[in-house]
Every structure is written in structure tokens, then in C-alpha cells.
Amino acid sequence: PYPFPPVSHEPRIQELTDNLKRAGYHPSFAPTGILLNEADMAHSQCLRCDTCDGFPCLVHAKADAEVIAVRPALAHPNVTLVTNAHVQKLETSASGREITKVVVDRDGQREEYSGDIVVVSCGAANSARLLLMSANDKHPHGLANGSDMVGRNYMFHNAIALVALSKRENPTRFQKTLTLNDFYLGAPDYEFPLGNIQMIGKSKGPMFHDDAPKFAPGWTLDQMAKHAVDFWLTGEDLPLPQNRVTLRNDQGEIQLHYEFTNQEPINRLRKKLQSMLEHLDLHPHLIPNNVYLGKHIPIAGVGHQSGTCRFGADPKTSVLDTNCKAHELDNLYVVDTSFFPSIGAVNPSLTAISNALRVGDHLLQRLK
């Protein structure tokens, strides 16, 4: 069970929830990483603003990595956070089985670090980049890349941001409390998974002003924002070996080869949401929300990137073993969303967190 109760719905979102239930759907509370009051943790109280949706929290009430992990870790005397340091490569022993040096450019100066265990967690694209940049005689195609799988199977979600217009004003401040998974594993008219529907941050007037034609009346756009109810649809991207991160040159510039897959489910999910609008006291049209990259997330939307160092039992088809240790090295772990063999159709954060805790327990046993 979750350690804290769910974040409650504001009145308009509670109405959506009630209407969905009356229509036969099964809405639920979205897992939301905010600290509601000072009793939860020794941090300031959540103001229920909209900065959780992609912005730093002004009062440290957002349960992000800084608040939950980094700050508490730095309270220990044996933890050091090094900033302005760019890891250039990982060097190995003569056998190629152990990482012996982490080579860093720190403010223009070369520094070297070493440890019994080295954990890489740069994000899916940059973890693959670092392993590829660290090629040597024992690993001519990149570290841990005897399978030629490093950088392959790059995934990010098929996702759409959409705005519906409420027939009444929607004064909600923190909107991301509702999620719907009725079609996650399929639908009566489609045997394959469609994905997840959830709320996103509340639209504001300037968002529409920036994206609207210049001749659009400002007061109309402001009224649209006041009546906006905002949805985020997530569908599953499929792992393809040809969707991959490679290096363009010796400087390690990333090149991404990618083709979109599995578009039918997300398009069907949009139609499902469209069909719900009449039950939710919303106008019967959905508007692409271009503030959130509009329509489908483009390749540049890398927030949910994953899959480039997938884990598995077979070294021929995976980069990491089931503890996220590189098959070909004895002390190298990759612990971020690189390890995903598939991406599912929800935000990857909880999976990344739970896996990090799992691998952490493994490392504790190994260090003993």
C-alpha cells in the first residue's frame, strides 16, 4: 500500500469522478508525488499550485528526487555530490572485466574517480552514450556491448495532450488527481492494450494566447482557459532494435534513429475519451494542447525515454542481468529507465524508483 492517503480531488474533478462512475467507468486517484502538509515530512506545505507539472516547487513540497533522495542523502558524511562535472568515459582493467576509473571533465580540468562498484544513471539516451564512448580494446563496440544491444530498443511514450471545455468554469488549481485505466489492457472492440487516461496541469490564459492566431480575441481565449479541463493520454511504444541511440562523431554527439510504432491504440484511446465527454458535462470536442507539445509527443520529447540497456537473462539479447549489472563487467550497474525491456502505458517514474530500491538492496548484500 502507499504510505500516504491519495491527494483529494478538487470539486470539479470530483464531479468528473462521480460522472465517470455513473457512466460505468472506474476512475481512481492518480499516484501523486506531493507532500500535503508538514506532518508528512519536514518540508513546507503544498500550496496546491500548478508548478508540479514540469516545474520546480517553490516550497520544496514536490516529492521529487531532490527532496526525497538527494537532500536526505547529503546529510550523511560519507556522501558527496559533485557538480559541474561531465563524465567523459569509463576505463577498465586490462582484463576488461572491471571499471577502474570514472574520467570526468570538471570545470575544464580532468579528474578521475574510482570505486568498488560503479552505477551509471544518466537517463536512457546518455547512459547508452557513455557506454558507447567508453569503447576500448576489450570492448571495441562500447562497454557491455558484446550483444550490440547498447542504444537499441529506444522507447518513449505515444502520448497526446488534449483540452476539453467544461460547460461551467473549472476553477481547479491542482488538476492531476484523477486517472482512468479501464482501457489499459484492451477494450470490447479491440483486443490489444489502449493505454491510460489522466489529468494534467490546468490550462492558463497565456498558454492559449501564445498558440492562437493573432486575430483571435483575447477575451475568448481567457474564457477558454477558465473552462478548460485538461487530459493526458498515454499509449505504449514498442521496442524495436532499429530504434536506437548511436554516436555521430568522436565528440559523442547523440544521433537517434527512430520510427513511430503502435499508433492505432492511442488513436482509439482518444476516441474513447471523446465518447465520454457527454457524460462529463463537457462540450463534445477535444482540442490539441500545443503547450504540452500538442498531438503526439515528437522525438524531442524525451521525458519518458527508456530501453537502451535492457535487462534480461540472455547476454546475447540484453545488456544487463536481472540485477541491472552489465553481463560483461563485474562492477558496473545501470540503474535508470535504460533497463526497461518494455515501457507500458503509464509514467515510468514509479517503476524506475521501485527498481532502484530493488537494486539498492542487492548492492547492500553484495557490499556485505
Largest sheet strand order? 1-7-8-9-6-12
- Categorize the overall geometry: elongated
Number of helices: 7
Report the strand count.
13
Mean of all residue-level pLDDT scores: 88
Fraction of residues in H or I helices = 10-25%
What's the story with the biggest beta sheet? Answer: 6 strands, antiparallel
Give the low-pLDDT segments.
Answer: 38-44, 291-295
Computed over alpha carbons, the radius of gyration is 23 Å
Structural class determined from secondary elements: alpha+beta
Terminus-to-terminus distance? 29 Å
Strand portion: 15-25%
The sequence of SSEs as H and E is: HEHEEEEHEEEHHEEEHEEH
Question: How would you describe this protein?
Answer:
There is one protein chain. By secondary structure, the chain is of the alpha+beta class. Strand 2 and strand 3 form a beta hairpin. The two termini are 29 Å apart. About 3% of the residues have low confidence. 22% of the residues lie in helices and 19% in strands.
Highlighted features:
368 residues, alpha+beta, three-stranded antiparallel beta sheet, 7 helices, elongated
